[in-house]
Amino acid sequence: MTTPTLSIAEIERESGISRDTLRVWERRYGFPLPERNQRGQRRYLIVELDRLRLCKQLLDQGRRPGSFILLADEQLRQLLSHPNGTMSLPPELEALKETLSGGGTTLHHRLEALLQLYGLRNFLTDVVAPMNHAVGEAWCAGEIGIFHEHLYTQELHRVITVAMERLPPGRNAGRVLLTTLPGEQHGIGLLMVSAMLRLEGAEVLTLGVQTPPEEIVRGAVGGGCRVVGISCSDQLGRRTITSQLVRLRKLLPAGVALWAGGNGLRTVRSIPGDIRLFTDLARISEAIREDIREE
Description:
alpha/beta
């Protein structure tokens, strides 16, 4: 069944955003990312229109596109509900953010307290995921320095690692190899995914960051892995990430699933080949049932 699409003229009319702006956003941000028909004309998925309507409302509030265009849809809706400011964090996360300037001991204790309050699964999805974004935004805005960002990452790594050590051994739900692509230095996403997989009973083999594709394949085959998971920040850029994932998919055996997720894939709506894209950690449970459950 063919997925219905809209022309750029229809998108312009229905969203209120000019076609010139749409083209600029496509080049600068990778969104909206249209498909092309046989004549090379842009064709947009319906889901792009829904997101563009949210963007138009934010433009009408006087916001600059660079401040919101790469946010998730739910975050766009939160911004719309706070027209005179930025997205607000829950009080306990605002307090956590304030502890960044208080040193490692204070930050560590606050992270531990939130872990106990939420439990590991919800700690990852409801605390760590929004805090990662908030810390990144604060650094970009000059509110915190690189030292504070590194301190946050270091203490978060300690807390999650200790929590994982307390988990029972895997329940034979399959083995997953985790790493990042060459040039991708951010590893906190790997740790978060590793913890979620462990909660689902999977066995995890982590290669660290910046692993060449050939070594990823060697590790997956030699380790008997049923899935390769790639964490992608926005460090490499959408086109580089896409091309490397497509190449990796071609190198991997057909029986090994390829997963990819992270902020670097926010603007990627589809990708050639059999690659599962993740928009949030909560989808891992579903993916395990479909890709690595025991037959």
